[in-house]
Amino acid sequence: MSQSEELPRSWARVRLGDVVPYGEAEKAEPADIPADAWMLELEDIEKDSSLLIERVRYSDRKSRSTKNRFRQGDVLYGKLRPYLNKVLIADRDGYCTTEIVPIRATAAVDRRYLFYWLKHPEFLEYVTGVSHGLNMPRLGTDAGRNAPFILAPLREQRQIAAALDSIFQRLGRCRQRLEVVPALLKRIREAVLEAAVSGRLTEEWRQVHGIDQSSWRSAKIGELVTALNGRAFPSIDYSCNGVRLVRPGNLHPSGRVQWNDQNTVRLPESYTHTHKQYLLGQGELLMNLTAQSLKDNFLGRVCIKDDPEPVLLNQRICAFRSIGPEDVRPYLFVYFRAPSFRRFVDTLDTGTLIKHMYTKDVLAHEVSLPTQAEQQEIFRRVDALFTLAANLEGQCGEAKLRIDRLMPAILTKAFEGQLVAQDSSEELSREMLERIKGGHEAREPSELRRPLGSVHGPGRGKKAIVAGREPRERKRA
């Protein structure tokens, strides 16, 4: 909201320092902090969601620097890299790094209303713009006091905060359900692959076609395909134009070779003639022979190159080519991704610092091979089911993005006065502020210091939840 936009009549645009004592934190030296006290660091707060990830005792931090002391009900604001949007409401007394600013609620401001304002897009834009420091920007105290604040009548603040609590709780539950979908789909994919290579996936198909599973035969992979190992192409030969070089990073977990601005490397076009034995076309089955990453089954990851553009094969990757007239690579593409083969790959760890394996070990591995017709049916069914899973995963991702975009939009509406009805009988915010500044009212009414239970932010209900659990309580050794 720009300053020129009109607020409800009883509202006022003021500075944050006009309504709360920003930056007036009580300091605590290490010797004065009890060993079992809650010691909060920025890493304990999840960005954007404001979930408390872990609760740690001071004795486990082993920190010897000065800390800020906070009280139950204080709004804790992370001023370091403020774009990370780390804000928390303390559910108990504790101590925190000086990169976290405890803000005490006053007679003019409801703590939950303040919490939500500190996550408002306008406030985030302001603090991001005025923070100093290139690599680790932080919000200065004076800049924090001069930050914009939209002051509504106290009763409306509480109504707005209650409405936002309810909305964000529902959105939080929805997001939690969406976050379990990728792990569920991963288990479904593994079950599909295991059913495919065991024969269970096409059991009904065999019955329809009068085929028995005894038609499957045992063969070593080396009897079905040959393996072409890639070549080392020095980086000095890399070019802006020319033929692409397929490297381990191009083998994507989806099972397809993927290219982008970051992972695409090219060699001069002349290399297609001088190194034509390493030139690959469409339909090649590729396997990664090294583990630059331990994530997503990097070692032994297989992909099909499904685009027609020729590429050169880099070292640490091999390409499999069928020996006989029947192309077994589509079935091997399924087999190589099955959990049973993944367990075999785990036995091939020959590296100390970086895991790697040899094609000779893969070629010596025995596989139970269906007939060519059943191989094709298995590949078709697995491909169809994986396409469905990918579509579901994409829809889940889109839904999470919509939730992420919806949250700041709701905050914007709330602080424009569009979330709850205004009461014309309410005291004007500026008049209330002037009255409080004049000392006619206590700074912190007892109502604002009521126990919070375990309120840590939006989408939480009565307890902080991270991926379906409460924040961990680290115990002393």
CATH architecture label of the largest domain? Alpha-Beta Complex
Quickly count the helices: 15
- Unreliable segments (pLDDT under 50, ≥5 consecutive)? 440-469
The strand count comes to 23
* End-to-end C-alpha gap: 50 Å
CATH fold title of the largest domain: Adenine-n6-DNA-methyltransferase TaqI, Chain A, domain 2
Question: How many domains comprise the coordinates?
Answer: 2
What share of residues are in beta strands?
15-25%
Radius of gyration: 30 Å
Arithmetic mean of pLDDT: 88
Helix content: 25-40%
Q: Largest sheet, described in full?
A: 4 strands, mixed
Brief synopsis:
The protein is of the alpha+beta class. 34% of the residues lie in helices and 17% in strands. Strand 6 and strand 7 form a beta hairpin.
Topology (elements, then pairings):
Layout: E1 12-15, H1 16-19, E2 26-28, E3 39-40, E4 54-56, H2 58-61, E5 67-70, E6 75-78, E7 87-89, E8 94-96, E9 100-103, H3 111-117, H4 121-130, H5 141-145, E10 148-151, H6 154-179, H7 181-198, H8 203-208, E11 217-220, H9 221-224, E12 225-229, E13 243-246, E14 265-267, H10 271-274, E15 279-280, E16 284-288, E17 290-291, E18 302-305, E19 311-313, E20 317-322, H11 329-337, H12 339-346, E21 355-356, H13 359-363, E22 366-369, H14 372-414, H15 429-437, E23 472-474
Notes on the protein architecture:
- The chain is 34% helix and 17% strand.
- The chain has 15 helices and 23 strands.
- It has helices at 16-19, 58-61, 111-117, 121-130, 141-145, 154-179, 181-198, 203-208, 221-224, 271-274, 329-337, 339-346, 359-363, 372-414, 429-437, and strands at residues 12-15, 26-28, 39-40, 54-56, 67-70, 75-78, 87-89, 94-96, 100-103, 148-151, 217-220, 225-229, 243-246, 265-267, 279-280, 284-288, 290-291, 302-305, 311-313, 317-322, 355-356, 366-369, 472-474.
- It has a four-stranded mixed sheet with strand order 2-5-8-3, with no helix packed on it.
- The two termini are 50 Å apart.
